[in-house]
Sequence to fold (123 residues):
Amino acid sequence: MEADESAAMMEKCQEMGEKHEAMQQKMAEQNERLHERVEAMNAATGEEKVEAIATVINELIEQRQSMHDMMMKMGPEMMHHMMEHMNPDMMGEMMKDCPMMRMMKDKEKSTKENGGKGHAGHH
Fold:
C-alpha cells in the first residue's frame, strides 16, 4: 500500500473515531438529563408526579428516536469503514493501527475486566 493511501485511511479512521466519541458524549448527556428527570419524578407528589412521569416518558421517547437516527446514519458509514479494512492490501498493520478499532478493543478489554458488566461494572 502506498504511503498516501495509508495516510488517507488513517485520516478516515480518526474521523470515525471522533464520530464515535461524539455519539458516546451525546449518550452520556442524555443519560444525565434522564437521571435528573427521574429524580424529579421520584421527589414529586400529587399532580406534579403525573406531570413528572409524562416528562420522563417523553424524554425516553425522544432519546430512543435520537439513538435510532444516529444508528441509521452511522451504521452504513461504520460498515463501509470496516469493509475498507477488509481490503487484503490494507489488512494486518492497518487494522491494528485504526484508532476506532483500538478504542473498541480497549472498551472490550474494560468490559472483560469488569466481569462483563461494561461501563456500569466499575460503579
